[in-house]
Automatic annotation (TrEMBL):
<dbReference type="InterPro" id="IPR050638">
    <property type="entry name" value="AA-Vitamin_Transporters"/>
</dbReference>
<feature type="transmembrane region" description="Helical">
    <location>
        <begin position="259"/>
        <end position="278"/>
    </location>
</feature>
<feature type="transmembrane region" description="Helical">
    <location>
        <begin position="228"/>
        <end position="247"/>
    </location>
</feature>
<dbReference type="InterPro" id="IPR000620">
    <property type="entry name" value="EamA_dom"/>
</dbReference>
<feature type="domain" description="EamA">
    <location>
        <begin position="169"/>
        <end position="303"/>
    </location>
</feature>
<feature type="transmembrane region" description="Helical">
    <location>
        <begin position="165"/>
        <end position="187"/>
    </location>
</feature>
<keyword id="KW-0472">Membrane</keyword>
<feature type="transmembrane region" description="Helical">
    <location>
        <begin position="82"/>
        <end position="104"/>
    </location>
</feature>
<comment type="similarity">
    <text>Belongs to the EamA transporter family.</text>
</comment>
<dbReference type="InterPro" id="IPR037185">
    <property type="entry name" value="EmrE-like"/>
</dbReference>
<keyword id="KW-1133">Transmembrane helix</keyword>
<dbReference type="Pfam" id="PF00892">
    <property type="entry name" value="EamA"/>
</dbReference>
<feature type="transmembrane region" description="Helical">
    <location>
        <begin position="284"/>
        <end position="302"/>
    </location>
</feature>
<feature type="domain" description="EamA">
    <location>
        <begin position="13"/>
        <end position="155"/>
    </location>
</feature>
<protein>
    <submittedName>
        <fullName>DMT family transporter</fullName>
    </submittedName>
</protein>
<feature type="transmembrane region" description="Helical">
    <location>
        <begin position="110"/>
        <end position="131"/>
    </location>
</feature>
<keyword id="KW-0812">Transmembrane</keyword>
Length: 312
């Protein structure tokens, strides 16, 4: 009972949520560093898929281990979990990361970190327009508009109003964000009756296997890695396992709105870490700053609205 009260404290929620955001933000430059250390060419999509498969299979194993330790019980899927695991694996891991990994190889970590934030707006639109889980209002629409303007802004050439959109880079990142949004709506629904940590762990493993096999069939491989190659793939697996586990614990003890409001920091972490680790400082101009502000404000407005509804 004490642990539950401890995890409900705002300062603790803030600290753990920010840790999740920093971990997720570090994945953007981490993936590109991984490509370099494993000698994966920008055009070698098959090997990128193999890389993704290995990462997420390991992430699934770590998630199940962490969940089993925290719950003091080994997590095994039951018959009623199979459908949810397969559906989540399809959208959360396979479809999302096929587009994400390929897209990231053709755009910058800075742009990818901001474009990925669109999954928040996609999820809200899906839940409100198609599933009628919540009513769209003025504040939510303004938040979505700000996010959309941010996406436009980040794709503008410096000093020009001409849009520069790379279909297999920026476009694929947006499709990945849409897939993730669909999976978010799914896990919210499945989480009403099933263990979300169990679902996350096994969907990572199932999705990882699909990606791995797909990549190998297409001729992909990862070998002859440089110093630090194994460490980076283990780190990326660690990022997914720890971040999703922490996020799941926070959602268990707190209202969804209280936790997700901190998600606005994701693009900030991604931009800062990409600039520092990938030397993408040329993308850190005024346009990027404006886009970052717009997207962050949009995410904040949407979640602030949800928070108000919870208080009523």
């Amino acid at each position: 009972m004490q642990k539950e009260h401890f995890l409900k404290k705002t300062v603790i929620v803030c600290l753990l949520a920010m840790i999740c955001c920093v971990l997720w933000g570090s994945a953007f430059p981490g993936i590109k560093i991984g490509y370099k250390l494993w000698n994966i060419d920008i055009k070698d999509m098959a090997s990128q898929i193999v890389f993704a498969g290995v990462r997420f299979f390991l992430a699934g194993v770590l998630t199940i281990i962490i969940g089993s330790v925290l719950q003091r019980n080994i997590l095994f899927p039951r018959k009623e979990n199979v459908k949810a695991i397969l559906c989540l694996a399809a959208f959360q891991t396979v479809i999302q990361y096929l587009f994400f990994y390929i897209g990231l190889a053709h755009t910058t970590g800075v742009k990818a970190s901001i474009l990925t934030a669109c999954n928040v707006f996609f999820a809200i639109l899906i839940a409100g327009v198609f599933l009628h889980q919540e009513k769209l209002n003025k504040r939510i629409l303004i938040g979505c508009l700000l996010g959309f303007l941010g996406v436009i802004c980040i794709n503008m050439q410096s000093g020009s109003v001409e849009l520069h959109f790379i279909w297999n880079g920026d476009g694929f990142i947006l499709l990945a964000a849409l897939s993730y949004a669909i999976s978010s709506v799914m896990i919210k629904q499945y989480g009403k009756t099933q263990n979300t940590v169990l679902l996350s762990g096994y969907q990572f493993m199932a999705g990882g296997i699909v990606l791995l096999v797909t990549g190998i069939v297409l001729g992909g491989q990862i070998q002859n890695g440089q110093n630090g190659a194994i460490a980076i793939i283990l780190y990326l697996s660690f990022v997914s396992a720890i971040a999703y586990s922490l996020w799941g614990v926070l959602l268990k003890y707190n209202p969804i709105s209280k936790v997700t409001v901190f998600g606005f920091f994701n693009p900030i972490a991604g931009v800062i870490l990409s600039a520092l680790l990938l030397q993408e400082k040329q993308d850190m101009g005024l346009g990027t700053l404006i886009a970052l502000i717009l997207v962050s404000c949009g995410i904040y407005l949407v979640n602030r609205d949800s928070d108000k509804k919870k208080k009523k």
